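Reviewer comment 2.1 asked that we show a complete input and output for one of the modelled complexes. We chose the NAI case, as it is the one discussed in the main text.
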Amino acid sequence: MEMFDLIIVGGGPAGYNAALKAGHAGLKTVLIEKRALGGVCLNEGCVPSKALLYSAKVYDYTKHADAYGVTVTGSSIDQKKVIARKNKVVKTLVGGIGMQEKGAGVTVVYAEAMIQGKDSEGFKVAAGDKIYCGKQMLLATGSMPVIPPIPGLREGVESGFVMTNREVLDLEEIPAQLVVIGGGVIGLEMASYYNSVGSNVTVIEMLDHIGGPTDADIAKILLNNYKKKGINFCLKCKVTAVTADGVSYEDENGKPVTVKADKVLCSIGRRAVTTGYGLENLNVYMERGAVKTDEYMKTSIAGLYAAGDINGVSMLAHTAYREGEVAINNILGKKDRMRYNAIPSVIYTNPEVGAIGETEASAKAKGYDVEVVKLTMNFSGRYVAENEGGDGIVKVIVDKKYNRILGVHMIANYASEIIYGAAMMVETEMTVDNLKEIVFPHPTVCEVIREALFEVK
Ligand code: NAI
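Response of the prediction step:
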């Protein structure tokens, strides 16, 4: 049995980042990962989907080049090459993490971890043919797709007809008919990709809007953009069955409809991974299927921390990084506290959606006295120059009582890169008057936020 200061189970963004921080701080750390470092984010989520979406963007540029005075003829997409490039990107980045862990002195064990329990020596975990003992332990086992008990769905997943986030990023042939169940983040990003590359895409969503908690005005603009691009949206529709070659649902009037599909993507949410690795041997407190953590990422058991999707709070890679850091800082005795009020979210559609903080609806529901500034993106010269026919907007939600920004929401390309600036406005709680003194570069898309600040009464 080998003794460690810290055992980390799971090598996704929470686990690998925590391991790096712990290793560099001098903790003897073992990181146990059963598949590949980088977790869902790097291997079958954030990064590979961005590689695909960038290929689609390049292809879209060629298709719409005319609008910018450029003639392109005969452009086409080679899906096999797109996937091969995506695999190369993933390989490079995963390899990079392995090197970094080595540099930090972290022992990486590629095996399935099985928690055996906790005794006076610490936490005992079996992996491969060894037992590891850690004075402290960080759980970072992530999440997996929810597969609801819809007749035929599980069978569809088993036969390969129904895909999850994993398989949809490896399709070497573009399906003629793609049906997407769930109009949330994964559903929209993948619907966007397959729409660009030529699939006939139908999105079935049970709510009356797409994009989940996205600001209502922004979600509406996104919906209209993709309706124009030819995606068929079935809102307020309940999927009743997955058949051998399609998906059946009840439309908003309860009328049964079946839509044919060559492939189906199931993207109706994810759930924390809490089984299959001996977690029950620790008897940790859980809520709604996730491990409950406090603001220091501590669980109900002394010395046991959890970070990332496993706590079900904010299933985003960037949240996971930060939670991992908070856990390590607390293990090291440094004061650090996780805050969730300024976590940016992005939907990498084309146009992109970037959001931070309260939406108009959530701010009002929480009782804030709000002022809402809504501006067309056409206030930005660069936006107009680069977006023929663009209909993007920015919305700034202001707390009138303290003259501070509660939220910023935008739909426009570069929103993914701009939104962190708005996150700083929320996180630092600067007043609108102070923010007005900040100089933005010109001409940029981000300066529309500055314009919006000057509209605040
Ligand atoms: P999601 O929670 O974003 O969206 C699921 C959607 O499915 C919701 O709109 C929901 O109303 C709908 N739905 C649920 N049950 C349904 C049913 N039976 N029939 C039809 N619609 C149904 O989940 P998604 O897209 O699977 O993403 C999972 C997680 O991955 C999320 O937590 C998301 O934050 C994260 N993610 C983040 C990305 C980003 O930050 N860009 C990219 C991809 C994923």
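The mean pLDDT is 98. We note this here for comparison with the apo prediction described in Section 3.2.
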